[in-house]
Amino acid sequence: MLVPSMNIVEITKSTPGFDTYLEEMTGLISIAFASNPLTLPALGVEYENNPELHNDFNRAQLYAALTGAGRVLGAFVNTDGHERLAGVSIWYEPGNQFLDDNEQLNHWTSFTRKVDPKIRQWWDEVMLPCYNQLSREGLGDGAKKNLLHLQVIGTHPEFQQQGIGKAMVKHMLAQSDSRGIASCVETSKESNLLFYTGLGYEVKANRTIPSPYGDLTMWCLYRDPSCDKCEGA
Q1: Dist CA 186 CA 229 (whole Å)
Q2: In this structure, what DSSP letter does residue 98 have?
Q3: I want to staple 2 with a disulfide (CB 3.0 to 4.6 A). Which of 121, 133, 163, 217 is the partner?
Q4: This prediction's pTM
Q5: Which residues of 92-131 are buried (b: 16+ CB within 10 A; e: fewer)?
Q6: 153 vs 67: CA distance, rounded Å
Q7: Domain spanning 7-223, CATH architecture
Q8: The sheet that has 183-187: what strands, in order across it?
Q9: Where is 88: in which H helix or E strand?
């Protein structure tokens, strides 16, 4: 069931109060992903031991999209007469990808300079090559740039299991379906597979990625715009 009075809006650098929204979104994603299997390998430290580094990571992802390459959505709910940020999602539409231009890379480099050199090496030599290979295996060489790509989605713990994430995904899928555009997403959390398959995505590939903190698995999923089996659609 959807939370009453939910409002999904796109956040850009020209949005009034942008700086405040940016920090709210950054903190929300950090909290939402604190226990994600990818987070510790990605940063080398637990959230509670260095929340600022986690915020640097997620701020870089937001900044990269906010260059104009991607789109950032915020889901707001009315609680006791006040609008609260409940969820955030980052998307890349056809023609753009995460880190595929110099402006995005500059934001990414600003983040990676802050992590331990061994973590930076892992990103460069293991994570990003494996991530790109997963996309090629699941979608085909070069196909990802022609799709709507869900890069990040997170819901504040206080609002989880209330339909926030599903509403954000459906908001974008309604637009892409009307244009006949397929979509894709990757996840490193097996429990998320049911969420995505319920929205019409299909698992196309998976890959084990080694890390100093133990191996993790990532899945690549694809959704056809003519999907007719979306839960609640």
Answers
A1: 20
A2: T
A3: 163
A4: 0.94
A5: bbbebbbbeeeebeebbeebbeebeeebbebbeeebeebb
A6: 18
A7: 3-Layer(aba) Sandwich (3.40)
A8: 7-11, 71-79, 82-92, 148-155, 183-187, 216-223, 202-209
A9: strand 82-92
Q: How far is Cα 71 from Cα 89, in angstroms, rounded to an integer?
A: 8
The radius of gyration of the chain's CA atoms, rounded to the nearest angstrom, is 17
Do 24 and 15 meet the contact criterion of CB atoms below 8 Å apart?
no
DSSP per position, 174-223: HHHHHTT--EEEEES-TTHHHHHHTTT-EEEEEEEE--TT--EEEEEEEE
At residue 87, the 3 state secondary structure works out as strand
Cβ contact 168:10 at 8 Å: no
Domain boundaries, the chain: 7-223
Q: Which residues pair with 72 in a beta bridge?
A: 11, 90
H helices present in the chain, as ranges: 18-32, 39-43, 51-64, 102-112, 117-122, 128-139, 164-178, 192-197
